[in-house]
Amino acid sequence: MAEGGRRHRAFIGSFTAAGGPGLVIADVHPASGALSLTGRLGTVPDPSYLALSSDRSMLYAVSETADGAVAAFRVGGDKPEPAGPPVPVDGSGPTHLSLHAGHVLTANYGSGSVSAVPVRPDGTLAPAPSGQLLHTGSGPHDRRQRGPHAHQVQPDPTGRWAVSVDLGTDSVRVCTLDGGTPALHREIALRPGSGPRHLAFHPDGEHVYVVNELTPTVTVCRWDAVGGSLKPLTEVQVLPGAPVGDAYPSGIVVSPDGRFVWTATRGEDVVSVLAVEGDGLRLTGTVPCGGHWPRALAEHGGFLYAANERSGDVTWFAVEERTGIPRYDGSVEVAAASCVVFG
Predict the structure, then answer these.
(1) Using CA atoms, how far apart are residues 160 and 172, in angstroms rounded to an integer?
(2) What's the pTM value of the predicted model, to 2 decimals?
């Protein structure tokens, strides 16, 4: 769809190993938030997480496979076009990627590492990483924390630091990228056994919210952009009571105005609404995610989107402005959906 001459599009990742179509493209109706599927591209196996360049001309995707790779696409035309072959990241099972200081950074879950792949001036990728940081450590959960499992890496709001979240070591690492090699600046320990998965920065640049996978909670932290450090302040439940079965939180989003935090919890299949109150959060309610196993959340244009992996769909919600409560509005079928980004 177009508004003011600009086309609104969504790019959806999926797991091809579970029957997903790969990279899916959709038009976005700006008034309703509705998605209309327009195409697909299955050239990269398991493009489970995506990121756009700042000018929205390039799209980057992880290939969440045992070998691990990242791929680049030109998205200025009607259909994404591969911009060179996928580049190995020298890590296993990359689950997340972001752009930072002229590089694509990948968080490699299987190998517990962060890789940095240089981006050329034309947006294409260099043929190999310029460096990587190997995480070390473990946690008390016997099955899930026998070693490091980097799950997310992203720049802080100032662009000075890269911050990686490790589920296996119950910690967040703050890194620099000197000479193209991620270097550890500081590691911050979170509660043992919490299993941190992803984090999101508040618009004030002073607070960070870490969603924990092994316990259905969010850890509220204060961010020091000058010193490059996190200080955990409190931990808040994202469910109103004890889960009846599996409960694995996944995605986390902060509203653009900074008043609310939304999380998704797989198994319980809900989106939780937390009100921001100073240095804390308050759980105000949960709503069904509209599918099964919500792997990721995204906000765009006043609407909230959930990529539901096991039910194979992306659902969208209008958000009530006063309360932050999402209201289900519709869905599109995308088998093994894993994430959605907008550009």
Answers:
(1) 16
(2) 0.97
